[in-house]
Design brief:
The protein is an alpha/beta fold. 33% of the residues lie in helices and 24% in strands. The protein contains 6 helices and 7 strands. Strands 3-2-1-4-5-7-6 form a 7-stranded mixed beta sheet, with helices on both faces. β2, α3 and β3 form a beta-alpha-beta unit. The radius of gyration is 16 Å and the shape is globular. 35% of the residues are buried.
Length: 193
């Protein structure tokens, strides 16, 4: 397991940087992030250069091999167990993270808990294709292999999970779309109550 994690951490940046359009999406979704910011699943820190000046970013990453590639201090924590007081952050950032958490419902509950009133979650996530489509069927069949290789699910209905967790979501489909791990949605969600 640790050999796979070391390999994934080493290969992550080159592979993700080749994903056409993803860097532009990162820059766009982070352009107006302000205040106290928590980035969950910070990976190797690819978002760092896109944060505006003045944003006070806390990076949380549970994988020590990924975390050691981030030059700033990193809190070792999964999204399901955030070690921060209630209402600590103005913004929580998730880029290609919710597809891989062990318990999405619990992770979304933790995100809601640490957001201040009026706070928001900004995200880039690949999601399940529409039910009944050929792509959704392919995602379902290939998900065990995808999970073993990529470490995440290619068929999670993340938007429905966000809404079920009480987020009012404003999202768009991105033209960035890796094979069968699309559509990719970019947007924000605010706790609805």
């Amino acid at each position: 397991m640790s050999a796979r994690r070391r390999l994934t951490a080493a290969a992550y940046d080159p592979v993700v940087r080749r994903a056409h359009g993803l860097e532009a999406e990162r820059a766009a979704v982070l352009a107006d992030v302000q205040g106290d910011v928590l980035e969950i699943g910070a990976g190797t820190g690819l978002n760092r250069r896109h944060y505006p000046p003045g944003a006070r970013v806390t990076f949380a990453e549970p994988d020590r091999y990924m975390a050691r590639r981030i030059p700033e201090p990193v809190v070792s924590a999964p999204a399901e167990e955030l070690p921060f007081p209630d209402r600590s952050f103005d913004v929580v950032v998730s880029t290609l993270v919710l597809c891989g958490v062990d318990d999405m419902r619990r992770a979304l509950g933790e995100i809601r808990r640490v957001l201040r009133p009026g706070g928001r979650l900004v995200f880039i996530e690949h999601v399940r294709a529409p039910d009944g489509s050929r792509l959704a069927g392919l995602q379902d069949r290939l998900n065990p292999l995808w999970r073993a290789v990529a470490g995440c699910d290619c068929n999670r209905d993340t938007l429905a999970a966000l809404e079920a967790a009480g987020f009012a979501v404003d999202a768009r489909v991105s033209p960035f779309a890796p094979p069968f791990a699309h559509p990719v949605v970019v947007g924000a969600g605010r706790p609805s109550s």
